[in-house]
From TrEMBL:
<keyword id="KW-0675">Receptor</keyword>
<feature type="transmembrane region" description="Helical">
    <location>
        <begin position="60"/>
        <end position="78"/>
    </location>
</feature>
<keyword id="KW-0812">Transmembrane</keyword>
<dbReference type="GO" id="GO:0005886">
    <property type="term" value="C:plasma membrane"/>
</dbReference>
<keyword id="KW-0716">Sensory transduction</keyword>
<feature type="transmembrane region" description="Helical">
    <location>
        <begin position="237"/>
        <end position="259"/>
    </location>
</feature>
<comment type="function">
    <text>Putative odorant or sperm cell receptor.</text>
</comment>
<feature type="transmembrane region" description="Helical">
    <location>
        <begin position="192"/>
        <end position="216"/>
    </location>
</feature>
<dbReference type="Pfam" id="PF13853">
    <property type="entry name" value="7tm_4"/>
</dbReference>
<feature type="transmembrane region" description="Helical">
    <location>
        <begin position="23"/>
        <end position="48"/>
    </location>
</feature>
<comment type="similarity">
    <text>Belongs to the G-protein coupled receptor 1 family.</text>
</comment>
<keyword id="KW-1003">Cell membrane</keyword>
<keyword id="KW-0807">Transducer</keyword>
<keyword id="KW-0472">Membrane</keyword>
<feature type="transmembrane region" description="Helical">
    <location>
        <begin position="140"/>
        <end position="158"/>
    </location>
</feature>
<feature type="transmembrane region" description="Helical">
    <location>
        <begin position="271"/>
        <end position="288"/>
    </location>
</feature>
<protein>
    <recommendedName>
        <fullName>Olfactory receptor</fullName>
    </recommendedName>
</protein>
Length: 316
């Protein structure tokens, strides 16, 4: 198709990966292992939280949804990246690009809101322990989760719909391993000023709307911890929110690096992408740093081994 004197682009070339076949083979093995570990870790968290009644609490309700989001976020980008590592032509259609950008915005955006809700949960638990049950009722937790999905979906729908109305001419190379909405703007031969304004405004509202509650919650948490007289008491109280604080640092840190630093396509950049690193490390953070999760994991493994032994004894 042509538009005036320009050819209309219907697919894009992803250049965020090495062109050396030997390096591509190594990267494929590396990221396949990362993806499989991500699937195993997050599925394990979902299974343990669902199976162990001790974890049927607001914090772990949010954590189960975080694990589901990490599964989705990783699955939106990594399988396509693995396919491209084995392909000579690393292309993606316009509709596939828009779909990938749409689901990245939904999953990453929902995770922002969910991390903010988890910060409020830690604030309620540490600063108002006697009122925690009233402040974090099941109905509120469900509303916070659905609200997170709803707001992120609205943001993704608006920005993707505007991007779908753009025309793309001649230039069709994207210097990254995945296709996201901001990557399309430099390639368009249409006026993208409205798209940029809407994306900037929605990002600022989204960012400040999630970061400010986190900052406020942790300011109050730190103030409460410092008011505790004993060192052991301060350490024990801080340990209840250290996992979440680490997860927030990884997610927002890798997200800022993705959008504030120039794209190089290096393996290090790929590893520390928010769609690769955070889904991998979140299960490790919450299983290694959280005593309740570690205890529940041990109980689940012991219960599974007991079932295996019972099955062996019952066999004729």
């Amino acid at each position: 198709m042509t538009l005036g004197n320009h050819s209309i682009v219907t697919e894009f070339l992803l250049l965020g990966l090495s062109t050396d076949p030997r390096i591509q083979a190594l990267l494929f093995v590396l990221f396949l292992e990362i993806y499989l570990l991500t699937l195993m870790g997050n599925l394990m968290m979902l299974l343990v939280i669902r199976a162990d009644s001790h974890l049927h609490l607001p914090m772990f309700f949010f954590l189960s949804h975080l694990s589901f989001l990490d599964l989705c976020l990783s699955s939106v980008t990594v399988p396509k990246m693995l396919k491209d590592l084995l392909s000579e032509t690393k292309t993606i259609s316009l509709s596939g690009c828009l779909a990938q950008g749409f689901f990245v915005l939904i999953t990453a955006g929902t995770e922002c809101f969910l991390l903010s809700a988890m910060a409020y949960d830690r604030y309620a638990a540490i600063c108002h322990p006697l009122l925690y049950g009233q402040m974090m009722k099941k109905e509120l937790c469900v509303q916070l989760v659905w609200g997170s999905w709803g707001l992120a979906s609205l943001n993704a729908f608006i920005n993707t719909l505007l991007a779908a109305n753009l025309d793309f001419c001649e230039n069709h190379t994207i210097s990254h391993y995945s296709c996201e909405v901001p990557s399309l703007f430099p390639l368009s031969c249409s006026d993208v000023s409205v798209n940029l304004i809407v994306l900037l405004c929605s990002s600022l509202i989204h960012g400040f709307g999630t970061l400010l509650p986190i900052v406020f919650s942790y300011a109050r948490i730190v103030s409460t911890i410092l008011s505790i007289s004993s060192t052991s008491g301060r350490s024990k109280t801080f340990s209840t929110c250290s996992s979440h604080l680490t997860a927030v640092s990884f997610f927002f840190g890798s997200g800022f690096l993705r959008y504030l630093m120039p794209t190089s396509g290096s393996p290090l950049e790929l590893i520390f992408s928010y769609s690769v690193i955070t889904p991998l490390v979140n299960p490790l953070i919450y299983s290694l740093k959280n005593k309740e999760v570690k205890a529940a994991l041990r109980r689940t493994i012991l219960k599974y081994l007991q079932c295996l032994r019972q099955h062996e004894r019952d066999r004729p």
